[in-house]
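Box 3.1. Reading complex inputs
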Amino acid sequence: MSLSFDLYVERRSWLHRLDARVKLLFVALATGLLLAMSNLWVMLAALAGAHAVILSARIPRSRIRWVWQMMLPITVLIPLLWVVFYPGEGRALFSFWLLRITPLSIVQGLAVALRIDALAFCFFIWLFSTDQATLVRSLVRLGLPYEWGLVVAIAFRYLPTFYGVFGMIAEAQQARALDLSQGGPIRRARAYLPVLVAMIITALRTTEHLSQALEARAFRPGARRTSLKDLHARPVDLAVGAGLLIGAALLFWLRFRFGIGALAL
Amino acid sequence: MEFPVTHPPCIQVENLHYTYGDEVPALRGIDLTIADNDFVAIIGQNGSGKTTLVKHFNGLLKPTRGRVLIDGVDTAHRSVSELAHTVGYVFQNPDYQLFCATTREELSFGPRNLGLDEAEVRARTEEALTYFGLQAFAEAPPAILGYGLRRLVSVAAVYTLRPRIFVLDEPTAGLDWRATLGLMALVGRLHEVGHTILLVTHDMRLVAGFCRRSLVLHEGRVLLDGPTRQVFGQADLLQQAQIELPQVCVLARQLSSQGIPGDCLTVGDLAGSLARRLGERP
């Protein structure tokens, strides 16, 4: 799948029409809630909800697969490392020398990995459904200086670009007989050095060209700017925002008053 | 139109289909044979499948359906680094290839990957520096050279692998005409000494001047395949593939009613025909 240009997927859906500030509020609240809770079922429910939102906005399934592909190493590595370094309490399923694996450590490891996946999906709900101009505008309307908003937008904008460039550079080096698939982890890491160096050079060159392009289009930090497209919150946006705030407040209250969602299982 | 193959085939493509992800079909059933020492232009509008096709020749892409044989061996069973012995691929963007501290190191990177001994690596590197006229830049970091020189270094870096087949993906994009001709002269010499050249390009002047065979792709299929002179005679089909002929070809066609051969490909061709025609007049 090619994701070389933008994360944004143009569609006419309720999510796309929703005010970008409300989507940003959702991301902030979801982040806070996911960090406050540790329960595996909560993480699974959050992921299921995020998938439902993405699909209801008619964002292609290939995008979901792309996020999972990106998150796969984290999703696999965290539970593996967790059971090694945080054995937890209770009956051991397996023990050998310093290694002690308990059911609790497995569940905790899974919950932490799925929490990161759920956080990623919450951010991608925002990025898949908000075009770059609206994204910057929403950050600026929330009080961020325009230059900072632009930096954030550019950073997101170039994530898939550099992902694609990394693939192209790896292909170009393989075409010169560089073998990236053989040997152990250290040998493979060393084999990737030419790819990384070429990547850094390309990134620096892209940065220079981008800064020149911005200057050539009269960009000047601190200059007063007008906006072609401004954001206008509709009643439904305000209602969704209020619903999100009330729902999140309720969940925070349940979490800190009764400890719901605090335990791993 | 099919191209008569006279030399033994080095590339055979059988019913090649390729789809990016699950959604985007890029190649839709390509059948093709390329002979040793052929000089083939692969042309077509953006998105027609040119780069996708040639990336199958060194194994960077594996067919979704069908197969690609290099010297009779299916690329599905060979890694890119193995195929790099036979097929040298020069990428469209030289910056994707260059990373070493000096041009000399850059040129020796490929031969070292092949596991050659130091004497052979040095010999190949020095020969490539000479062949491409890069001696003056041997100790310069390639990343800071001008675009034309970076382009040359990227071709030279593949040349040191000594592949029999060169795949050049838009090698002259961004070069001025003098640099373009300089690079194409070097490529022409490679062809003369027996290499097979596959040139992906949008520059029809290069196709007319250098390539004896042209392959036109359109929407992932072969629209035309044959001697360049015959392919350039298929104006309607070329128009379908959004290909515009060089001005000299158009002029020759317009002068054909005056007894000038309508299939002239280059200025030299047309000038020769005009001189002969004028010489015939009383």
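In summary: The longest strand of chain A covers residues 94-96.
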